[in-house]
Design brief:
alpha+beta, NADH Oxidase, 4-stranded antiparallel sheet, binds flavin mononucleotide
């Protein structure tokens, strides 16, 4: 029988899952039969993610991390995806995401051990070829050839710049950036300067460039070099074009997404999403056309994986009380 202490320990492990802008929107409510997972609508991105798809993906990644964390304690769960119901009434301020009903004992899934090892690496990867040991997934095209990586890198830079030209998106990104260690939420959520690979000076430049100086820099055509990631993108060992059934809920897609990231972590690879490519209709279509991802599938994410050239940055995670609803 799983105890409340076990459940809270599993919630803390589940919170290690990746979430968009490190918003960590997943909240838990437990009862005798199991857990309800809800998405905190105050921790979503109205400008960048108006449909809540990234919030759903993030909650899905946390749900799968919870499945793994509970299995590591011998506890099985049956997950019911409730995202599509769009229930925003049962728990005010939240959208019900899933139900996890306790079942019988289960064996540990070896991927659980990767929850602590997976992280996002924003920078150049180790150029030495990584051994992928035949890694493959039916829901991901794994691009390893220099031509393909170069094409995705150039397209990614175009899409990234176009996205950043939206003032509301820049404002929202800045809101979730913790550019000073003195920010009151620095240890809890959002994007720290260490996580973004910035020093103190780069953090100050980012605040100005994404804020008041953007219009001038853009007129002077200086924003492309500021936002370009192509050199780092092409240094990755593999770029995964992750696609799922077109009609799948983001909650279920997010569960599979976490497993993709944990499999990469098992190979010693850190990930760096290039979300602008999947979020922009034209580039999403171009990637699907090039890699034969048909209309029955949805390109969910393009993510670079490679060996990081530095240690894992300190993690910002919400305290336990913030994970409950
Ligand atoms: C749906 C989704 C989209 C994301 N998009 C990006 C992105 O475009 N660029 C980026 O650098 N990180 C992106 N991330 C990574 C998150 O910012 C990262 O998971 C979060 O900051 C927590 O850090 P961690 O992965 O190191 O634990 C995305 C994550 C998710 C779940």
């Amino acid at each position: 029988m799983i105890t409340q202490t076990d459940l809270h320990a599993a919630m803390a492990r589940a919170a290690l899952a990746p979430t968009v802008h490190n918003t960590q929107p997943a909240r838990w409510r437990s009862d005798e039969a199991g857990l309800t997972l809800a998405c905190d609508l105050a921790a979503t991105l109205p400008s960048g993610d108006p449909l809540g798809r990234d919030a759903g993906l993030s909650c899905g990644a946390v749900a799968e991390a919870m499945v793994l964390a509970l299995a590591a304690r011998g506890q099985g769960v049956q997950v019911t995806d409730l995202w599509a119901q769009g229930d925003r009434a049962s728990i005010p301020g939240h959208r019900i995401a899933a139900r996890l009903d306790l079942t019988g004992p289960v064996a540990t899934d070896p991927l659980a051990a990767m929850l602590e090892r997976r992280f996002t690496w924003r920078g150049r990867f180790d150029p030495a070829p990584a051994a992928l040991f035949g890694w493959g997934r039916a829901d991901a095209v794994l691009v390893t050839d220099p031509g393909g990586k170069g094409w995705l890198a150039a397209l990614g830079d175009d899409a990234g710049l176009a996205v950043m030209r939206d003032p509301a998106l820049r404002h929202e990104l800045l809101h979730w950036m913790r550019l000073s260690p003195r920010h009151p939420r620095h240890a809890h959520d959002g994007l720290s300067r260490a996580a973004m690979g910035f020093g103190a000076l780069e953090a100050l430049s980012a605040r100005l460039a994404l804020g008041p100086l953007w219009p001038l820099l853009d007129r002077l055509r200086l924003t492309r070099p500021l936002t370009a990631e192509a050199t780092a993108t092409t240094s990755s060992a593999v770029i995964a074009c992750f696609h799922r059934p077109a009609d799948e809920s983001p909650l279920s897609s997010g569960r599979a997404y976490l497993r993709l990231c944990l499999e990469a972590a098992h190979l010693g690879l850190a990930g760096w999403p290039l979300a602008a490519l999947s979020d922009t209709a034209a580039t999403n279509a171009a990637v699907c056309a090039r890699y034969g991802i048909g209309p029955d599938r949805r390109l969910i994410q393009v993510i670079r994986f490679g060996k990081p050239t530095g240690p894992m940055p300190p993690r910002a995670r919400r305290p336990a009380a913030e994970l409950l609803c």
